[in-house]
Structure formats: structure tokens, C-alpha cells
């Protein structure tokens, strides 16, 4: 569909996905602020616990700490803007601000997806090839994989954002969502929107490819674990993978609902719920899963909290 009859260029977008009554804004603002603070604090605790406990200085926990660090910035790309819009009457964002939000949100999401795939391969090597694990997953390789995940996650999205920045926006400026995302923004472009389908296909291929790698890794891992003769050995092996598997299901489950729909349309309220689950709720559960489902992590967090108590006691 082409809207070439529009001449005035749009300089900002209006979010129409927020409540239209003032009391409703405050009703959503307070829980969202509490969740955001919890996400920041929870992931910071995980990061510091891993860095300060020498027992956790191994590939799996290093990947977890990097993932938690990325989660802080992943949520910061959208939630502060949501909070601002909830208390603002304008509920707008500049076109440049919208492009930057999309770029950082999806780049950080891409980096997290690549890191989850790396973590699945790490668990595969640890359980399926334990004798060679120390020589395969060396500290140098883990550093390279972590840096590579972040660099690739940011570079792969540059051409797409650069292309969107060249599109003319001269018609309607209402984004029917609570943050900037590809599909609702592309629909506002005054040009042929058939490119949306190509965007959907590219995103779908990337998601399905990552899910297949992780799923195949865990199918193989579970097969090997079930062959362990002792029940204690099986339980220990499962416990090392349970937290990562939980995060994988949360992350890719919400991503799939958001981006593996193609031409299917959902009611506006369901669209917003899926967006909240994808951008807010999944990151909220990640530090809980890593801290409560992992014995070593719980011990490290208790040590960290004890150190904080000792520090504050000495200061007073």
C-alpha cells in the first residue's frame, strides 16, 4: 500500500497503546516501576555474586553473569520510556528516538539469543563430553564467544535500521503498541509495506534456527542424563541445566508469540499483553530462576548479602 499523497513529514510518533484514563496510568506506573527496580537489582545481584565468588568462575556462570548484564540494558531500552509515557500527556517519541529504541532493544535481544544458544552448547559439551570439556571450553574461547555474541547482535541489525531510517513517514503517526517495534513502525511508512512480510520471514528464520540448535542440544543432553545409572547423578546433571532451560523457554516462548505470527492478527489488548510478557515479564523471572533453581548461586548470593551487612555494620 502506497501513501504518496501525504506531503507533511512526521517528526514524532504517538503511542496509542497506553490507557486513555489518568487513573489507569498510575495504576500501571507503580507496578511497572517496582518490576523495573526488581529486574535491575536482581540482575545486578546475579552479576556481583558470580564475580565475587571464585567457585562460580567457570564458563556456565560467566555466561549467566553476562546474560544478566545484558538483561539490565535490554529492559532499560524500553521500560523507562514506558514509565515516562504513563505519566506524560503527550505519549510521544521522536522518529530518531524510536529508531534508536528499536535498535538497542533488538540488538540486546539478539545478543541474548546468541548467548542462550552458546550456553546450550556449553551444557551439551559439559554433559555429553565431560572429559574434554576443560580443553574445549577454555577461558579464552568463552571470552571470545561472549564478545562475539554481543558484537554480532549489534552489527546484524545495523542494515535493517539503516534501511528503515531512509523510509518516508508522512501519514498517520500512531503506533498501536507500548514501545517502538518493527511491524507497527513499518506500517506507518509512506511506501510499499509488502517489505513487512520479508522482515517477518528474516526474523522467523533467525528465531527458528536458534530454537532448533538449543532444542537439539537439550534433546541430546536429556538422552545422556537418562543413561546415568545413579539417581543422584541424574538429579545433579538436571539441576545444572534446569535454570538455563527455564530461561530459554521464557525467552523464546515470548519471542515466538511476538514474531512468529506472520499475517495473523491478534486483538489489540492481546498484542499489548504479549509485548509486556516479551519486554517486561520474561526479564523479571530470569533472576528468580537463576537464583532459586541453582544451589551454588543461592550460596553465592547469601555470601554477597552477608558481605554487604558486614560492610554497613563496619561503616556505622
Low-pLDDT parts are 1-6
What would you call the structural class? mainly alpha
Instruction: Tell me the fraction of residues in β-strands, as a range.
Output: under 5%
Mean pLDDT: 83
Q: Percent of residues in helical segments?
A: over 70%
Compute the number of strand runs. Answer: 3
Distance between the termini: 67 Å
Radius of gyration: 22 Å
Number of alpha- plus pi-helical segments = 12
- Side by side, the strands of the main sheet go 2-1-3
- Could you say which overall geometry the principal axes of the C-alpha atoms support? globular
Question: Brief overview, please?
Answer:
With 316 residues, the protein is mostly helical.
Describe the structure.
It is a single chain. By secondary structure, the protein is an all-alpha fold. Helix content is 74%, strand content 3%. The protein is built from 12 helices and 3 strands. The protein has helices at residues 22-52, 59-76, 79-87, 95-128, 133-136, 139-155, 158-165, 182-186, 195-226, 231-259, 268-292, 295-315, and strands spanning 12-15, 92-94, 174-175. It has a 3-stranded mixed beta sheet. It is globular.
Break the fold down into its secondary structure elements and pairings.
Elements: E1 12-15, H1 22-52, H2 59-76, H3 79-87, E2 92-94, H4 95-128, H5 133-136, H6 139-155, H7 158-165, E3 174-175, H8 182-186, H9 195-226, H10 231-259, H11 268-292, H12 295-315
Parallel strand pairs: 1-3
Antiparallel strand pairs: 1-2
Helix pairs in contact: 1-2, 1-3, 1-11, 1-12, 2-4, 2-11, 4-6, 4-7, 4-9, 4-10, 9-10, 10-11
Amino acid at each position: 500500500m502506497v501513501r504518496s499523497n501525504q506531503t507533511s513529514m512526521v517528526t514524532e510518533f504517538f503511542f496509542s497503546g497506553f490507557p486513555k484514563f489518568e487513573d489507569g496510568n498510575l495504576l500501571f506506573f507503580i507496578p511497572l516501576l517496582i518490576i523495573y527496580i526488581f529486574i535491575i537489582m536482581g540482575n545486578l545481584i546475579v552479576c556481583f555474586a558470580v564475580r565475587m565468588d571464585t567457585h562460580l568462575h567457570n564458563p556456565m556462570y560467566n555466561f549467566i553473569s553476562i546474560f544478566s548484564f545484558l538483561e539490565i540494558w535490554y529492559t532499560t531500552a524500553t521500560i523507562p520510556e514506558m514509565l515516562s509515557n504513563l505519566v506524560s500527556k503527550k505519549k510521544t517519541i521522536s522518529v530518531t528516538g524510536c529508531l534508536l529504541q528499536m535498535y538497542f532493544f533488538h540488538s540486546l535481544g539478539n545478543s541474548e539469543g546468541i548467548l542462550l544458544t552458546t550456553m546450550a552448547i556449553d551444557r551439551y559439551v559439559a554433559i555429553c563430553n565431560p572429559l574434554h570439556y576443560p580443553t574445549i571450553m577454555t577461558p579464552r574461547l568463552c571470552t571470545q564467544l561472549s564478545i562475539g555474541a554481543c558484537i554480532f547482535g549489534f552489527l546484524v541489525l545495523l542494515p535493517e535500521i539503516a534501511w528503515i531510517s531512509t523510509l518516508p513517514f508522512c501519514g498517520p503517526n500512531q503506533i498501536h503498541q507500548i514501545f517502538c517495534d518493527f511491524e507497527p513502525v513499518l506500517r506507518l511508512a509512506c511506501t510499499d509495506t509488502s517489505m513487512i512480510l520479508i522482515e517477518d520471514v528474516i526474523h522467523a528464520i533467525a528465531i527458528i534456527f536458534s530454537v532448533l540448535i538449543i532444542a537439539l542440544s537439550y534433546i541430546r543432553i536429556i538422552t545422556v542424563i537418562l543413561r546415568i545409572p545413579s539417581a543422584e547423578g541424574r538429579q545433579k546433571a538436571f539441576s545444572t541445566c534446569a535454570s538455563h532451560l527455564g530461561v530459554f523457554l521464557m525467552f523464546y516462548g515470548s519471542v515466538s508469540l511476538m514474531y512468529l505470527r506472520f499475517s495473523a492478527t491478534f486483538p489489540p489488548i492481546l498484542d499489548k499483553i504479549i509485548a509486556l510478557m516479551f519486554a517486561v515479564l520474561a526479564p523479571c523471572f530470569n533472576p528468580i530462576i537463576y537464583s532459586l533453581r541453582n544451589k551454588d548461586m543461592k550460596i553465592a548470593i547469601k555470601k554477597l548479602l552477608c558481605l554487604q551487612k558486614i560492610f554497613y555494620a563496619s561503616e556505622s
